[in-house]
Design brief:
Blueprint (H helix, E strand, L loop, with lengths): L3 H18 L13 H20 L5 H26 L7 H28 L1
Helix pairs in contact: 1-2, 2-3, 2-4, 3-4
């Protein structure tokens, strides 16, 4: 499994990049800002996957810090690319905020899981 984690992390990042830069798909009658939930979920998984990958090479705390920075920087870069490379997408600070919320939700989940692991040992 450890050998697959880097491929999974890179693959997820590539898919997230493609989905973020291609024209939006799905119903157009969605409530305003409803896509922010998807942003939060996507970046929650992004952070978790990268944390697990980085934990192979680093201590848990350092891996988590790197995963947080990676997720936030990645999300900001995606928004900049949407603004500069596409005509069908716009950069949105609310997307960045939703990405950060998702990132910190994953931190909460990871810390709870680590606390439960310590408690069970």
């Amino acid at each position: 499994m450890h050998k697959l984690l880097p491929l999974l992390s890179i693959g997820y990042s590539v898919v997230l990049t493609i989905l973020s830069l291609m024209p939006q798909v799905g119903p157009s009658n969605m409530p305003s800002n409803s896509d922010k939930v998807f942003h939060a979920i996507a970046y929650m998984f992004f952070t978790m996957i990268w944390y697990l990958t980085l934990k192979i090479s680093f201590f848990s705390k350092k891996a988590l810090r790197i995963a947080i920075v990676l997720a936030i920087v990645f999300g900001i870069i995606i928004e900049i690319l949407q603004h500069t490379l596409t005509q069908h997408r716009e950069a949105d600070i609310k997307d960045v905020i939703a990405n950060i919320i998702g990132t910190f939700l994953s931190v909460l989940i990871i810390k709870l899981a680590l606390k439960m692991k310590v408690k069970n040992n």
